[in-house]
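Quick one, T. Sequence first:
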Amino acid sequence: MAAAVSETVQRFTAETLKAASKQSKGCYVVPLRLRRAIKNYIRDQEDQHMKRNVSRLSESFNAIKDANLQLTASTARELIEDPLKYVGCSQRWKIKSNYGDIGLKYRDDQTIAYVASRMPAVFSACHRVLTEVKRRLPNFEPTRVLDFGAGTGSAFWALREVWPNVTKSVNLIEPSQSMQRAGLSLIKDLKNLPDIQSYGSIQSLSQNLKNRKDGKKNRKHNLVIASYVLGEIPSFKDRITIVRQLWDLTEDVLVLMEPGTPHGSDIISQARSHILWMEKRRSRKLAKSSNQGSKDIMTEKCGAHIVAPCPHDGVCPLDNSGKYCHFVQRLQRTTSQLAYKQSNGIPLRGFEDEKFSYVVFRRGPRPSEAWPLDGMKFDTLKEQRDKMNPEDFESDYDDQIDSEPEDIFDDKKMIKYESDINEPYFTSESDAEEETSQETTRADLGSGWGRIIFSPIKRGKRVEMDVCRATNNEGTEGCFERVIVTKSKNPTLHHQARRSLWGDLWPF
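Structure tokens:
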């Protein structure tokens, strides 16, 4: 296999390598149309106690997080029967279903507070993840989408930004009626919407599809998203049941996202391990089958591999390491967040950091690709200087004493939301605020791309990065290691490393 994918022909240049590696974004600006939709929604509700509701909602999330960390499957039911036993009056009742506890109930005031304070951050994290899916799967177009735990529509808004006018139908599953109403209210002024159907549970969706003539044909979705919902299910057994159901409804890509906490990371890790184990077992069974039809199925859609963030499909090298896999997306706070969030008397910063953990699965085996640095030769700093003309030495000297790059998150350089204040309330699909899309080199799904797990440490002419990487060409095993790049040995990669961010890829 290694011989089949190894190449001696150079596949990348220094510039295309840097473009392919770039997956993160510095400070995200929430799109104008979503900011306006949130402001319109809040204005229509006329809630006089917004700050207090936002504060209580935040306390409630913290209480639920603490309780879930203490819960086991045996105590999950006790939380339903006596919520005050664990977390006091701030705990909200869980919603019961045939397959366990599926989420939290939201009163209307809690839903309004969520839209004002949490929706922009959750949207930004979803946008970051779906953008990488689009970049790494350029031919993938999610025409039929399932959003489980849709809430107020954060993932749907991100989907519309990343793949505008591509999606034909969306099935939303959200047990909270208050959340459903808010989500529909937020999109009421958008144009060219896909066919949207809302359900309270997976069972309701399955029953509806069963009763439709084309139900069997439309049962599978080529993109399934579950963002910030699995952590609301305290029972491990119930969570795994739901993950299996979501995977069964997935035709191509499944995206799971949770808050970037140790608990959220554990949930993603458990789901990752289970789906990969389940598909490996299925592949082994089909391989043993003497039926030719079964073997044909195995070669097409059998198996699963990770699109992101993991560069391999082996055991997570962070397991039992005391560290947990998570990422961060910085976003400028919207005017609603600045207006209603509490800061204990200290002025709020113009930005906030949304930490998240995620995993993106795709059906089928991992593609075999040559590693990105195959065929590439880099000059050392001495070799580069030997090739220079005398007049180039002055600029080269400036490069050598280059100080640390300016902090891209400098609060003083935040873009002001003047449009939120000065422009009228309306939502238009023609608002041209999106970034200009630029064609970039694709980082393929072969095993030669590592992932920068934490913020790189920059020490003058030396950059240290913690990288999760594959250890073989098939991507079946991986490791976690410290990569050190120095300017003297490889100025080209050193230049790239100095501009790499937490969450970017690193070539091998």
